[in-house]
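Morning!

This is the sequence you dropped in the shared folder:
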Amino acid sequence: MIGLEDITYSYRTGEYKALDHISLTFRRGEWVSIIGHNGSGKSTLVKILMGILDDYEGSITVDGELLDEENRITMRKKFAIVFQNPDNQFVGATVEDDVAFGLENNGVPRDEMVRRTEEALKAVNMLEFRDHEPSRLSGGQKQRVAIASALAMAPDVLILDEATSMIDPEGRREVLDILRTIHRRGKTTLIFITHDLSEIEDSDHAVIMKDGQIISEGTVEEIYKDTDALLASRLVLPFHMKISKRLLDGSFLSYDELVERL
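The structure's back. Tokens below.
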């Protein structure tokens, strides 16, 4: 779906490289988690994927087509993004208005707009809140509405940029459950940006970034076993992962799997 080849970016000429020769492949329908602390280059990578930053070195292909000035706007329509703070994305007076906003902006016919809005709200279990004011929702509900707004645009790629970092544990579980449902359908490529290792368990592929470089990538289990990369990036294994490793012959189990095994 997306190929990044030798992407390098500096915010000012000659300064420290925010991205330093990054090459990555995102397959269609795949869930890829990109992990790292502030300053690792995650947000810069997102801005380049979304077309916000375009003066990078290297090349990007989307659906096998080289991204350039002529097709940048068209290609951008294949992407949708959910940000860290859902309040910054709300523009409608009601949940339904907010989800429909992007569709209306793009001139989608009314009948189709109503259908896609309803389907998106159903997908995130928020249809019953369609007439509510977004400001009166919980943090998790707000983020689910933000995801619905993105899904209504029928993107090929859904990017979540620290989308769980400002909500409580219950809201975080709600959002991750929604992502699992989207992933099971296999139609949308998920790019999940986080600094929390406990949130990557359902990923097909995971990448650790530090100082603008990829220092480790592979399956989730491979990432959990890469002690050197975890130490270098100051990432800490989730508590249940530490327990499963200590008690179960070095195996790494999800929280639910660990509970069942114990």
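Headline: The chain has one domain: 2-78+155-261.

More detail when I'm at my desk.
O.
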